Amino acid sequence: MKDISRRNFIKKSALTSAGSMLIPGFLKAYEQTNLGNSILASEKILVVIQLSGGNDGLNTIVPFNNDLYYELRPQLAIDKSSTLKATDELGFHPSMSGLKGLYDDGLLSIVNNVGYPNPDRSHFRSMDIWQTGSDAKSVWNTGWIGRYLDSTCGDCGKPHAAIEIDDSLSLSLKGEQIKGMAMRNPKKLNRAIDGGHYKRIAAAYDSEEVANHNLDYLYKTLIETVSSSEYLKEKSKIKKSRIDYPQNALSRDLRTIAELIGSGSDTKVYYASLSGFDTHVNQKFQHERLLSTYSESVSAFVRDLKAMGMLDQTMILTFSEFGRRVKQNASRGTDHGTANNLFIINGQLKTPGFVNEAPDLSKLDEGDLIHSIDFRRIYATLLNKWLDTDDVSILKGKFEHLNFI
Amino acid sequence: MIKEAQIKHLLNRATFGISIDKYDQTLKSNPDQVIKGLFQNAKSAKSIRVKGVQLPDLMALRNMSKEERQQFRKQSREQLKDVNMTWCQQMAGEDGLLAEKMTLFWHDHFACRNLNGFLAQQHNNTLRKHALGKFGDLLMAVAKDPAMLQFLNNQQNRKESPNENFARELLELFTMGRGNYTEADIKNGARAFTGWGFNLQGEHIFRKRVHDYGEKTFMGRTGDLNGEDIIEIVLENKQTAYFITEKIYRYMVNDTPQENIIKELADGFYRSDYDIKKLLNDIFKSDWFYRNEHVGTRIKSPVELMLGIQHQLGLSFSEPESVLFLQKALGQVLLLPPNVGGWPTGREWIDSSSLTFRMAIPTLIANNKPITYESQKDGDVNTQNLGKRVKNLVGDIAWPKLMEHLYDDNDQQLVEKAERYFLSTSLTAQTKKQAVAYVGTGTDENDRLKKACVAIMSMPEYQLC
User: What pLDDT does residue B65 have?
Assistant: First the structure.
């Protein structure tokens, strides 16, 4: 019942908004034909948070009873006493009380030792691998979320089906046919679109006259952008957040996402990122600050979603392109590593807490952790069990599902 | 096709578009003369030599204090930035443009990231040196190039523990393409390249001690093969000529390949012992190159877009770092390709945010608007100085020359002149109307000219060449 009324509401509100807009009739027609193609087969939403630069997972989830950890990190290791203990062996970094709270409430699953075979220690390459879902040997030019859009939406074209909160779009959200869209927030997007000549140009498009595939594609992208910008502007008026978020960029982005989720935007995937994790030098304070930012922002976001009644329908994945070397370096920092932990947050997790074993510091490969769970198993699980889609074709291979959903 | 349009198409593809400096002079010549001039002018291409760029003295580095070492790394990053900016300056200039355009092609083909300014500069100069020469020479030079050897881990390719990275990319990306070799070929190819490395002076060396002198079978040939043999065998294979020709066709002609034409070109390329100059000449001199289906159908890469604007407006930025900002914001930072596969192409460049930003650039340049666009942070401390935010994108524009060539008192005429100058395809009736109306709001001659230029360059059509 609830689902049906919500969907009707979406349709209705989008139509009213289209009617009130000062956009050309041809665009309105375009909007209406697209309303029928809603990809909201289910009401489930995925939020991806990317920690850029390579988060030091060992100082995030601390193995506080492991002598090797303290041996290899004489200055960098987190004190046993200050660790926020979760199990007999693992605890949270002291600045992550927010995330620890989610753990205590059964809203957080932690997957340890996630990675892929033949790990690449270059930021770009490893981020590429995570964003495309390829193996270390292949170079792909579409992202895993982009291919999800391709497979679900055919060529109905609607960039706001996947939104990245940024000025430019990551490879993750680029498909062969369909690409998601990047924006800071609906207001800024709308200001840019209204302030420019985009609408007039989009309206001047004449498919009869344009016999050039690439030009067609450019106009199509432009028209969709104008249309999505209008849609998001109208949507974003529906729900405002009532929760206090901390003052930082990630919080601002997550609040934008929460408001769009609360407003019932026809968006399946949201993407946000936090950068600065490349902690080669004097890691301690920088890392502490970043973890605190992440933890406080995410816990506010979860509170917000809960207040809106959307926490059960929203799955939040947090990942980084790699972890860091177990042994600290000579500059009180850590160098690029391999396997890492990742976080999954949702109101209805099947396996709250730790999904698998703690990292084994006695068995390293050239000083790095060895992965036990391929990251594409996480993607496969999310695509199949959460987004109800064909994970095998999107990931171009079969990966065993995990049980967190 | 009329002569003028032919020349414009030629220059769009062989260089970075016609420049306002040479507008009249170029269009008065005939296409054959222009082609000849391009190859002649290519000889004036210069190597990049940024002052002070040198290899680190590794012995000295070892004795440096932590602060000194940090300082040193910072300096190295600054040098990489300088190499990038110098290259952009050369491409925005008038010397050796065909060689520069092909250097850009080879930079994407032999994609290589090296954070050391000296090695990056040397690599770039190697590409330029052979850009229009024999592909075999280019391939051999790249295979021995320290930046590439480092990037593809050949320093670690030793008899006891072969590293297959270089051999794999050599076959997959540099010469033949997937499906034309086996995993065994890669394994044995890698063995043949064991011992190829470089010394502290940044020179190629062959380390006999770590080379595998055993018998190897590579693509049907058996013997004590070395790296040179592998390259020779690969060049003997016609697939290499086809693979390279197709890629050049996509770059110069159309991103939808046409098999019969490519095959014919590739046959000639192979027979000429991989003469790149001849291949390009065959393309530029053909009739099919000027067919409508190829004109104005190619989506400009970010760097092509930026350089096209510079050439067409006679623009030099007030802040030299503007070129870095644009590269970063548009997602193509030279010297830092995303991976060994090189940059995206064609439509992959276009999404809603990149398109709207691309279309806003002319306004930012001509109207001194503050920039609010923030480039994505990749999280790598080593590259964050590239693409630093600039205050604005203004610069000196050759308005008097633009006035001389494009101005008309009649709005419609003015728009049509600008359209012919800036675009490779014609606007639709409706879009042209939009531009004419906008020009009509101009206050005086200068303002109307500026509005015409901005209006035309802000059209989706301007993303094509």
Answer: 81
Dist CA A183 CA A185 (whole Å): 6
* Contact status of B66 with chain A (Cβ, < 8 Å): yes
Based on DSSP, count helices (H) and strands (E) in chain A, helices before strands.
Answer: 13, 12
Task: Give the minimum alpha-carbon distance from B136 to chain A in angstroms, rounded to a whole number.
Answer: 25
A343 contacts A92 by C-beta, under 8 angstroms: no
| Stated length of chain B | 465
In three state form, how does the secondary structure of chain B look? CCHHHHHHHHHHHHCCCCCHHHHHHHHHCCHHHHHHHHHHHHCCCCCCCCCCCCCCCHHHHHHCCHHHHHHHHHHHHHHHHHHHHHHHHHHHCCCCHHHHHHHHHHHHHCCCCCCCHHHHHHHHHHHHHCCCCEHHHHHHHHHCCHHHHHHCCHHHCCCCCCCCHHHHHHHHHHHCCCCCCCHHHHHHHHHHCCCEEECCCCCEEECHHHCCCCCEEECCEEECCCHHHHHHHHHHCHHHHHHHHHHHHHHHCCCCCCHHHHHHHHHHHHHCCCEHHHHHHHHHHCCHHHCHHHCCCCECCHHHHHHHHHHHHCCEECCCCHHHHHHHHHCCCCCCCCCCCCCCCHHHHCCHHHHHHHHHHHHHHHHCCCCCCCCCCCCCCCCCCCCCCCCCCCEECCHHHHHHHHCCCCHHHHHHHHHHHHCCCCCCHHHHHHHHHHHHCCCCHHHHHHHHHHHHHCCHHHHEC
The answer, for B182 touching chain A at a CB cutoff of 8 Å, is no
ipTM attached to this prediction: 0.93
**Does A139 contact B355 at a Cβ distance shorter than 8 Å?**
no
Using an 8 Å CB-CB cutoff, list chain A residues near B331: 168
Q: How far is CA B174 from CA A122, A124, A152, B169, in A?
A: 21, 20, 35, 6
Using CA atoms, how far apart are residues A77 and A64, in angstroms rounded to an integer? 9
Q: B378 — contact with chain A (CB < 8 Å)? A: yes
For residue A214, the chain B residues in CB contact (below 8 A) are: 297-299, 346-347, 464
Three-class HEC string of A244-293? CCCCCHHHHHHHHHHHHHHCCCCCCEEEEEEECCCCCCCHHHHHHHHHHH
Give this prediction's pTM: 0.88
* Residue type at position B216: K
Q: Among A26-30, B53-57, B66-70, B358-362, which stretch is predicted with the lowest mean pLDDT? A: A26-30
First-to-last C-alpha distance (Å) of chain A: 23
**Hey, what are A203's tokens?**
């309206």
Contacts of A217 in chain B (CB under 8 A): 347, 350
In the 8-state DSSP scheme, what is residue A42? Answer: S
Cβ distance of B380 and A159 shorter than 8 Å: no
Scanning every residue of chain A, which has its alpha carbon at the shortest distance from the alpha carbon of B428?
A209
**Separation between Cα atoms, residue A124 and residue B211, nearest integer Å:** 31
- pLDDT tens per residue across span B166-182: 999 999 999 999 899 99
Note whether A139 contacts B: Cβ–Cβ < 8 A. Answer: yes
* A281 band by pLDDT with thresholds 50, 70 and 90: confident
User: Do B338 and B331 form a contact (C-beta atoms < 8 A)?
Assistant: no
- Burial status of residue A214 (CB atoms within 10 A of its CB: 0-12, 13-18, 19 or more): buried
Summarize pLDDT for A10-33 with one digit per residue, the tens. Answer: 333 333 333 333 344 444 444 444
Q: Is the Cβ of B109 closer than 8 Å to some Cβ of chain A?
A: no
More confident residue, A316 or B430: A316
Nearest chain B Cα to A139, which residue? Answer: B341
Backbone angles phi, psi at B371, to 5 degrees: -95, 130
Chain A residue with Cα closest to B372 = A167
**Residue B379: pLDDT band with limits 50, 70, 90:** low
